[in-house]
Design a protein that fits this description.
Chain lengths: 203, 386
Amino acid sequence: MTLEPLKLELEEKVPGCGLEIISNPSPSAQHSLLIDPEHAVAVAMYLRDAAHLRFDYCSNVTGIDWPAPNDAGKAKLKDMEEDLEQDEADCATAGYLEVVYHLYSMEKKHGPVILRMRTCDRGLRVHLPSLVSVWRSADFQEREIFDLFGVIFDGHPDLRRILMWDEYTDHPMRRDYVEPDDYEYEPTAHDEVLRKTMNHYAK
Amino acid sequence: MTTLAEAPPKSTLSPSASNGDTQLLEVSMGPQHPSTHGVFRMDVSLDGETVVKLKPIFGYLHRNHEKIAENETYLGSMPYTDRLDYFCSITNNWAYALSVETLAGIVVPERAEYLRVITAELTRLQNHTCLAGFLMQDMGASGTPLMYAFREREKILDLFESLTGARMMCNYMRFGGCRVDLPAGWLEQAKTVVAAFPKFLDEFEALLNGNEILMARTQGVGVLSKELAINAGVTGPMLRASGVNYDLRKVDKYGIYDRFQFRIPLGDHGDVYDRYMIRVLEMRESVKILEQAMRDLPEGLIQDPKTKVRNFKPKPGEAYGRIESPKGELGFYLVSDGTPRPYRFRVRPPSLINLTILEDMCLGRNVADVVIILGSVDIVMGEVDR
């Protein structure tokens, strides 16, 4: 489905909404539409209810973590002994979290249209509107994004952790997540495990 | 010297202020309940025997498959996908291979496409017979139907074993094809198994379809409306039992499904009985697909020779690929940053999303019906929790 006419139509029907087409250079050519959080529910409602679109089925909802470019993957590559606190502080404020919705139409049998939303940063301003009121299928998937990425969905009816336990505080799918040192490592022949073991006993 | 504890004050001994009729009982079903088919818990509030609230609780099998895959090469994640829905490892492989092929623009040779269809439809057969068997087991028909189903599944698992070396964790697909070609005599053996399958289905249906207990316990139970099913993203046999004609084998025509003649069975009522019947009817259609695919299987390559096995690096970009797995729409969403490891790896688990409406289906039913309704959803916890 070509996105340019859809973008023009949405801009006309939902006044004031900011839309941007994010092109996808890979052979899949699945381009997506970046929508601004304020008008997300209105855009979603229009996509679902307009008679010629009828995107009644929200298949997949997922999150992606985009730390600021310089820090990407740094935590993983860095030696564990080094002090990471300063980097973590930088990392939390820069970059953004992204939520992706894959929409299809069961009635018209077309799709996908891919919607994206971005948070302001990765620290405190991680609020996005929930689309559960439009598609119930986003319910568990948005809870999962809240659990694993830490995006807070405003208007979600039951925003609790879904896979991790309730007392857990971190978000494991973030790129800069560091595994807690709370279990005994089995010393094996793998370098990474040996390094963790040394680190564990040094503490 | 010991003294007896003082008698409690009179006020605490008075009858409870609340009326006994309105007391709710909270029951924790699971995580080790036999009907949950794994470690899954439902917090059920009961008024007498009637369910007034039901909250599913997940995560007992969570190992963050997606995080593991981000630290693994593209091909290195293929065996992990077997462990998602461990009943249907081959369809999981296919969904993942299809997504990577979409991401990297790989063309699959003709023979490999046929092999994929044959193995995937065999997977569907064994999944659906077992689901029907487990459903009867949950209903109290201990043993007989399930053992009949397992007898048939055994024959299919033997075929998988001689083809891939493993009965359940097949790890059969590769990007741009399949891992190994058919061993000598495999096709003849598979044809015998498939030819005998309709006879088993006749027997199975004669045993169950008109069974009074089955009908009494499943008809009108756990009704799911068409509108709610679509809005809640329910897919697979669950969706089609509610009467929505949406099968990705017809809609997306991924692979070579447009070459086969088969029909999509649809339900009228969307109750547990319809979900059982849809699976039986789908098995008959799968047998038709298998017969056509095994008849037309061409000679040729089984892997695209241009696809690298080592140092496989798709161009930056993203792709979502989905197939009709026996449980519903199984999708993989991949984001590549041009390195040998995916930047983001997401599984769209049909079992988890089909559970969204579990509470809606159970409200107002007896607690005994919860077991059957859950059984008819067809979940595998390896996929729900990932």
